[in-house]
Design goal:
The structure is a homodimer. Chain A is an alpha/beta fold. The first copy, chain A, has helices spanning about 20-35, 50-65, 80-90, 110-120, 135, 145-150, 165-180, 195-200, 215-225, 230-240, 240-250, 255-265, 280-295; strands at about 5, 15, 15-20, 35-40, 70-75, 95-100, 130, 155-160, 185-190, 205-210. In chain A, the strands form two sheets. In chain A, strands 1-4-5-6-7-8-9-10 form an eight-stranded parallel β-barrel, surrounded by five helices. In chain A, strands 2-3 form a two-stranded antiparallel sheet. The longest helix of chain A has 14 residues, at about 20-35. The interface of A and B includes residues 43 and 78 of A. Chains A, B: Belongs to the DapA family. Chains A, B: This is Dihydrodipicolinate synthase family protein.
Chain lengths: ~300, ~300
């Protein structure tokens, strides 16, 4: 479950609620493509913006639409108490694994984050992936803390933030972390634009935003990486460069992928919770051009 | 309401819920001291960690314990939809004003933040204070954006982040923002350690953490500032320097003030929601020493 391609779909919504049919369709598409796992209610799935009830409902829909593909559910919340409740909900609804980010409002200490993971792990019967995303959680893991948490028995993977685009620097970074964690804990790369570098540098999986909408595109890169074909990995990823440029210029992956999904009619417009907006005006035009140029569909 | 001393009490809680009696006692103490307003469910009041229902209950308790002192309620949340609901709840429960921070998970754009405030202001019948706290919201206001938002008719104050300790730099900073906002919009200083500088530099109010537990101490500084007695302001604030040192060394004001409240028995231990912890071990000993040294009670 924590190797290969983990595809993270959007949770399309508006001010009235989640668009359940559209969400199920996105998940079915991933199941049909036979991705290795489906990462539901990640940052791309806007978990932080949904109530406990809505998150349970989305989990149920995902599990029933995912066929034989394991579903990993994001259970992050500000309070340990709420994470425990979300973990129970996710397990009851059939999640195969959970993904936990140390979401913060007040800045957290290392000891607080460790205790948070320790408490949650004690209540889990499914494996957990540590979600390291300083851009949204505003918590920065030290390697030492990763090592401590990775030794908790339920921890089976770490979703690591973007590595350097320099392959040697990326290899060093992955090797440094690898040395501190148990052998059976996998490392997965986030940040689509450097995913190919991450995979070549030794990551076991790709926690992928683009894969949540275009699974075949992301699978081709992942399978080439798993076959050790670095040249094909690089070529396929380089082809998507105009897409990665949009991520860099327009404030990250979420708004771009959500805008693409709207333009292609995979989701209704708008699909993000206010105050978040998809891209408009000239930025939207740029996205349309890239969709056409890359023949994304 | 948005001038003088606005005192921000803790919302003492544990994993079972809010300690309602202790919270009411904290508010009554502020009312008795006749602070100018009580800022409930600010960052010190852990608003981000509480459910809508708990926040309504805390608002009701505050209003019924505050006597003739106006109560300002923090209504921040990730979603515009949730802020609208919280605003309605706060108004129904008798809030005299509201405090709104642009809380974020995904990084927000200036236009998103402006629309967020505009939408919320349209639904308000009480005045609003813009809560600028980049350390917790991870959104940085430009002066230009402050100017735009401050011209929305319901906006009556801006809670500004700590200014420079250099009085001339602080004066310049306050004057620069003042020039961009309407005359009847006040500016209040956050960051207890530089509050005296902020007040001398031209701020109309002090949004005070220490004032939420020690109202007389904070009132003495505020009243001296209002009388134009810069020397007394400085002397009274300098006396508290050992306290400000704790803020700096131990990761901000919340953990320090919560630890002080626990040590003095104003609240039960623990009083913060997990994963947050009050200070323990040597750090707690340091806090005890400062309490004794300053004769805080």
């Amino acid at each position: 479950m924590f190797t290969g391609l983990s595809a993270f779909p959007l949770t399309p919504m508006n001010e009235q609620g989640v668009r359940e049919d559209e969400f199920s369709n996105l998940v079915e598409r991933l199941a049909k493509a036979q991705v290795d796992s489906i990462g539901v209610l990640g940052s791309t799935g806007s978990y932080a913006y949904l109530s406990r009830e809505a998150r349970t409902r989305v989990t149920q829909l995902a599990v029933s639409s995912a066929g034989n593909v394991p579903v990993i559910i994001g259970i992050g919340a500000l309070r340990t108490r709420d994470v425990l409740a979300l973990a129970e909900d996710a397990q009851k609804a059939g999640a195969s694994g959970v993904l936990l980010a140390p979401v913060s409002y007040q800045k957290l200490t290392d000891d607080e984050v460790f205790s948070h993971y320790e408490t949650v792990c004690r209540s889990l019967s499914v494996p957990l992936c540590v979600y390291d995303n300083p851009g949204t959680t505003h918590f920065t893991f030290s390697d030492e803390l990763h090592g401590r948490i990775a030794h908790l028995p339920q921890v089976r993977s770490i979703k690591v933030p973007p590595v350097s685009t320099d392959i040697n620097a990326a290899r060093e970074r992955i090797a440094r972390l690898r040395a501190l964690i148990p052998e059976d804990v996998t490392m997965g790369i986030s940040g689509d634009a450097v995913a190919s570098t991450g995979l070549i540098a030794g990551c076991d999986s790709w926690y992928s935003v683009v894969g949540g909408l275009f699974p075949e595109t992301a699978l081709a890169i992942t399978r080439a990486a798993q076959a050790g074909d670095a040249q094909t990995v690089q070529r396929l990823s380089d082809r998507l460069e105009p897409f990665w440029v949009l991520y860099r210029e327009f404030g990250g992956s979420l708004r771009v992928i959500a805008t693409v999904a709207e333009i292609l009619g995979k989701v209704s417009t708008p699909c993000l919770p206010l105050p978040l907006n998809t891209l408009q005006g000239n930025q939207r035009n740029r996205v349309e051009q890239v969709i056409e140029q890359l023949d994304l569909r």
